[in-house]
Structure formats: structure tokens, C-alpha cells
Amino acid sequence: MVETFRHYLTSKAAFTDAELEQLEAAAIVKKLKRREHLLHKGDVCRYMAFVVSGSLRLYRTDEEAEEHILRFAIENWWMTDPESFRTGLPAQGAIEALEDTQVLLWSRENWELVKREVPAFHALENQLAGHYLDAQVNRLYTAISHSAEVRYQEFVKAFPDFYQRIPLHMIASYLGVSRETLSRIRKQAGFH
């Protein structure tokens, strides 16, 4: 598990062996079963997670108990409830494993510590935060300016590894369309 994380880090920036060991020592290894929650709505998000294997989703539930998926994460992706992790306030969302999943977790304290003590990791975190913000802006723009067909095409293009692993109803939720609409779009596009 640690080897996957090491490979990820060294593909992103230059880390010394001592820095890698420090990052690994600060992490907690956790295995989640399919449908097991890493975070429940109302709990404080205490961890930043790196997905070693499997997949996660971050979602919120509205007043009618309808789920709205905000984010997916598969291998070599990061996951947290950013607002709760940053502020220490109760989470508005929940994080659930979509498959049996292995993650590395850093508490907020350890996260801040390794960012201070490992400059390359702090720079990587800043870069990832920038990419996350850009992705959220692009997702919002796509949601308000494109048809459901275009949103699905953009999703498949941007996340080719996701659409084959994630249940159709969850992709529909992420795109803000009904499952029936997504089934129609997929059929017209030649997906079966």
C-alpha cells in the first residue's frame, strides 16, 4: 500500500527518502468495505484520505432524502470534505466507499505538520488545491451552460476510468440528471 503512495508522490515531485518516510509515518492505514462510510453527515471530517485502491464518493442529501454526488475519487486521488476538514465544523456531506477500498489517512494535525516540515509536499498540496478549484469552476460552468448530453460526454472524456466503475444512478446524480435521462443519453451515444 505504501509503495503505491510512494510511486504517486515521486511522480509528482522530488522527495527524499526521509521525507517519504515522514509522510508515511504520519498516515493511518484504513480498509473500508463496500458501502462503509469514512464520514457521516454531521460528524467533523478529521482526515484527508489518499485512495490506494477502490473508490469513494462525497455526497449530500437534500430535504427529500435525494442524494447529490459532489465528487468521486479512485486510486491516486485525494478525498475529504474540504469545508469540514478545514474549519472543524460538522460535515454537510458524507463519504462512502463504492467498492472495497484502502486509504491512507492524515489527521488535520498531522496534515499541517507534514506540510510545514516537507516543503515539496506543501507545494504539491497547493498545486492540488488549485486543480481542485479549477475543476469545481469548470464543473459549475458545464452544469449551467451545457445540455445533459454534453455534460455526460465531458464526464466520460474527463474521467474515462470512472464511468465503467461507478453505478449509473450515481453518475446521473453527479451530472444532475435522472437515471432515465442518462440511460437515454447512453443509448443514443452507443453505450450499453
Automatic annotation (TrEMBL):
Keywords recorded for this protein, A-Z: Plasmid
Keyword Nucleus: no
InterPro entries from the UniProt entry: cNMP-bd_dom, cNMP-bd_dom_sf, RmlC-like_jellyroll
Residues covered by the Cyclic nucleotide-binding domain: 11-130
Pfam families from the UniProt entry: cNMP_binding
Transmembrane segments: none
Protein name in the entry: Crp/Fnr family transcriptional regulator
Origin species: Hymenobacter volaticus
